[in-house]
Design goal:
64 residues
Length: 64
């Protein structure tokens, strides 16, 4: 299982990360017209709510 390999590789950081399964999404170019076809797919609310900004803010505030 891929998450076991990630856990093993990051064992020194145990408790400081969470492995989250995401759908396999390819060929999405959204809000930028750079010569590619623009495609939008609707994801469920749990996936849609994933935010790197929220994670960074939590890390900067000590996880609070």
């Amino acid at each position: 299982m891929a998450s076991a390999a990630i856990d093993h590789g990051l064992r020194e950081y145990q408790g400081h990360y969470v492995v989250v399964r995401l759908p396999n999404i390819t060929n999405i170019f959204y809000d930028r017209d750079v010569g590619y076809a623009v495609e939008r797919i609707d994801l469920d609310a749990a996936v849609q709510d994933i935010s790197a900004t929220k994670v960074r803010n939590a890390m900067n505030s000590g996880g609070r």
